[in-house]
Amino acid sequence: MTEQEQGAELAPMPEDWQRALAVVAHPDDMEYGSAGAVAKWTDEGRSVAYLLASKGEAGIDGMSPEEAGPLRVQEQIASSAVVGVHDVEFLDHPDGVITDQLALRRDFAAAIRRYRPELVITVNHREYFPGGMFNMADHRHVGTAVLDAVRDAANRWVFRDLELPPWQGVRWIAIGGSTMDTHAVDISTTMDRAVASLREHRAYLAALGEHGMADPAPFLREHAEETGKRFGGVLATSFELMPV
């Protein structure tokens, strides 16, 4: 599927799995769309864990990284709990300048070996988001490293110093916010919690000012309605699903 073909009908996401690991760059990355799906999955009894490459410390212009980092960590933990995620880890890659691909791959492979997910969720790694907004470097670098780390985690001779057994059980990678989405999840019953999870990022949203959203509900609902037009008319969030 090419970017020009976006707009095609979306297929349902697979349901024959129990464990997922979401690997993203910053606090709030999951909340701009994917959290509604996570809430539905945890409601169904599936296990979802989050791994964040950074603490988001460079994300608030009027607040020093030393102050913003701990605050954004707490906001993300609260946000994750709203959608039933209680395993939330933060790495120390520098927010805004995440570039060390080998270090990212090693950290992500270690997490995949520890959590042993069947589904790995990540952020759009391409240059643009749907609608044409340019994607930032942190997202691109993290997303690409996740794709590589899934293979790394399965190879016992890669990152041997981790002393963790290989995990070859990842069956799919789901990419949120992709310009090449293929699958979707009905979030009609979890829309309110998706909004509530983003609202937990209070300091971050407030700092966005006129460029942000005092109330994220209209933005998230509009996006869900637009996606749902290709998924039976329900409220939905979409992913590009890559079989492994």
Automatic annotation (TrEMBL):
Coiled coil: none annotated. The keyword Zinc applies. Signal peptide: none annotated. Pfam families: PIG-L. Keywords: Zinc. The keyword Flavoprotein does not apply. GO terms for molecular function: hydrolase activity, acting on carbon-nitrogen (but not peptide) bonds, in linear amides. GO terms for biological process: glycoside metabolic process. PANTHER family: LMBE FAMILY PROTEIN (PTHR12993:SF28), N-ACETYLGLUCOSAMINYL-PHOSPHATIDYLINOSITOL DE-N-ACETYLASE-RELATED (PTHR12993). This is LmbE family N-acetylglucosaminyl deacetylase. It comes from Tamaricihabitans halophyticus.
